[in-house]
């Protein structure tokens, strides 16, 4: 469905300037605490695993340390798997699912892999329940060289510093009803474009890299997730979020070209998870469990490939 939406900031069909971006920023409020909800959980992992501060984001009203957690017995000879969460800070299960990955999966799989989790890449977005950072920039379109997103640049620099190629990268996301009610209309207004809404899929789905889809890998992830929650069916046009399915529950995008998080890492196996937390058929805990199941499905697939 395509519709002309007049957002409350800006002039129709004209991109935002600094005045409009400042107005947008002034309307954002803190709704929850990154330090209480996330940092405290990360600190509890110290001693069990390696916690590293890989950067700091300094914004007008606050300074946010950025953390990653690495598994024990880190060895260059092991394949390395990266899990990222909270690229869009408002996507709650991406953050808390990533923390549960450390708590529930590291002990089981660290013998076979170097595991590294960055659970909350966009802490200001987490606190204000936002897709963008304070500069009205979407980090998940800016995982590129010389990124204007401090969130994306910090992660790229950190992963580069590990000096190990990645075998796999799983990026944990959600698709929510607010994508249509707030974030897509705001994006269209910011860019001076016509807003195009899509039908929000009821269920879990994956986004693969169209240049390297790895369909068996995607299928293995979905099979594990299906034990926890339902997989999204195609809409009446046979699509998910306006994109053609490559298999049930999977679409593919040119991730590197679009500046998506899984694109920068150039991992052989990569996928972006999409949980639907607004479904009447799931709960917040099941959404977190689905994120863990996705990573577990990926790791089990990789173990089978190594045999």
Which features would summarize this protein structure in a list?
307 residues, 10 helices, Aminopeptidase
In short:
With 307 residues, this protein is α/β, with parallel strands linked by helices.
Descriptive report:
- This protein has 307 residues and is α/β, with parallel strands linked by helices.
- It has one domain (18-51, 71-306): 3-Layer(aba) Sandwich (Aminopeptidase), CATH 3.40.630.
- The protein contains 10 helices and 10 strands.
- The chain has a 10-stranded mixed sheet, with helices on both faces.
- A hairpin with a 2-residue loop joins strand 8 (243-247) and strand 9 (250-253).
- The longest helix has 23 residues, at 284-306.
- The protein is globular.
| CATH T-level fold name | Aminopeptidase
First-residue to last-residue Cα separation:
47 Å
Order of secondary-structure elements? HHEEEHEHHEHEHEEEHHEH
Low-confidence stretches: none
CATH architecture: 3-Layer(aba) Sandwich
Structural class: alpha/beta
Mean pLDDT over the full residue set:
95
Helix content: 25-40%
**What number of structural domains do the residues give?**
1
Our estimate of the beta-strand percent is 15-25%
How many extended strands? Answer: 10
Secondary structure: elements and pairs:
Layout: H1 18-26, H2 34-43, E1 50-58, E2 63-70, E3 80-85, H3 92-109, E4 114-118, H4 123-128, H5 150-161, E5 166-174, H6 178-191, E6 205-209, H7 215-225, E7 239-240, E8 243-247, E9 250-253, H8 255-258, H9 261-265, E10 269-275, H10 284-306
Parallel strand pairs: 3-4, 3-5, 5-10, 6-9
Antiparallel strand pairs: 1-2, 2-4, 6-10, 7-8, 8-9
GO biological process, one term: proteolysis
GO molecular function: metallocarboxypeptidase activity; zinc ion binding
InterPro entries: Peptidase_M14 (IPR000834)
């Amino acid at each position: 469905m395509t519709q002309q939406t007049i957002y409350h900031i800006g002039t129709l069909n004209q991109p935002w300037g600094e005045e409009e971006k400042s107005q947008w920023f002034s309307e954002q409020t803190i709704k929850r605490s990154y330090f209480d909800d996330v940092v405290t959980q990360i600190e509890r992992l110290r001693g069990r695993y390696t916690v590293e501060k890989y950067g700091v984001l300094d914004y007008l009203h606050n300074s946010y340390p950025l953390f990653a957690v690495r598994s024990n017995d880190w060895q260059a000879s092991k394949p390395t798997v990266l899990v990222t969460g909270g690229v869009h800070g408002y996507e709650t299960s991406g953050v808390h699912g990533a923390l549960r990955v450390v708590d529930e999966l590291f002990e089981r799989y660290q013998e076979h892999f170097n595991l590294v989790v960055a659970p909350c890449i966009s802490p200001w977005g987490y606190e204000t329940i936002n897709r963008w950072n304070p500069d009205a920039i979407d980090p998940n379109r800016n995982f590129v060289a010389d990124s204007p997103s401090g969130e994306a640049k910090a992660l790229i620099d950190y992963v580069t510093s590990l000096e190990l190629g990645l075998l796999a990268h799983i990026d944990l996301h959600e698709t929510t009803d607010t994508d249509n009610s707030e974030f897509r209309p705001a994006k269209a207004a910011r860019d001076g474009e016509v807003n195009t809404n899509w039908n929000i899929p009821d269920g879990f789905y994956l986004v693969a890299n169209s240049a390297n889809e790895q369909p068996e890998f995607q299928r293995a992830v979905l099979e594990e997730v299906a034990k926890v929650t339902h997989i999204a069916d195609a809409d009446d046009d046979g699509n998910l979020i306006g994109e053609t399915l490559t298999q049930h529950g999977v679409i593919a995008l040119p991730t590197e070209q679009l500046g998506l998080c899984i694109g920068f890492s150039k991992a052989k196996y990569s996928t972006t998870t999409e949980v639907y937390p607004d479904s009447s058929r799931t709960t917040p805990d099941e959404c977190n469990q689905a994120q863990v199941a996705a990573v577990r499905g990926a790791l089990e697939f990789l173990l089978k490939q190594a045999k």
